[in-house]
Design brief:
The protein is about 45% helix and about 20% strand. The protein has about 120 residues and is α+β, with helices and mostly antiparallel strands. A four-stranded mixed beta sheet has the order 3-2-1-4, sandwiched between helices. β1 and β2 form a beta hairpin. α3 runs parallel beside α4 (about 110-120). The longest helix has 22 residues, at about 5-25. The protein starts with a helix and ends with a helix. The relative contact order is 0.18. The mean pLDDT is about 95.
């Protein structure tokens, strides 16, 4: 088996492991899921009971793209987190569970979480 297949499998296993832990201890709360690429970062709040996305924000949105110089840095992640937090608070969502996926809670992922907390989300 090639090295890339092993890496893909281990990342996939890590993602499933984190997501299952989050779902197990969520207690009915919505899940804030993060996706990070080299150029952008995005996050969405998901209702696992119905399988629907309740709110989302991304550095690739036109509104945020005009505001940001670069979509793949800590500053952009903070802005995306604040925007997502504002959208959730407008809908009456204040408590979520943070799903970091396969990423370490560090750098852009942590900055997004801090931005969401600043906007009023609790997790």
């Amino acid at each position: 088996m090639s090295i890339t297949k092993n890496l893909h499998r281990s990342r996939q296993r890590r993602t499933w492991r984190v997501r299952n832990q989050v779902r197990r201890f969520a207690g009915g709360r919505l899940r804030l899921s993060v996706f990070r690429s080299n150029k952008h970062i995005s996050a969405q709040v998901i209702d696992d009971a119905s399988g629907k996305t309740v709110a989302s924000a991304s550095s690739s949105e036109k509104e945020l793209r005009e505001q940001l110089k670069n979509g793949g840095n800590v500053e952009a992640a903070t802005v995306v987190g604040k925007k997502l937090g504002e959208r959730c608070v407008q809908q009456g969502i204040t408590e979520v569970v943070f799903d970091r996926g396969q990423y370490k809670y560090h750098g852009r992922v942590a900055a997004l979480a801090d931005g969401a907390r600043e906007a009023g989300l609790q997790f």
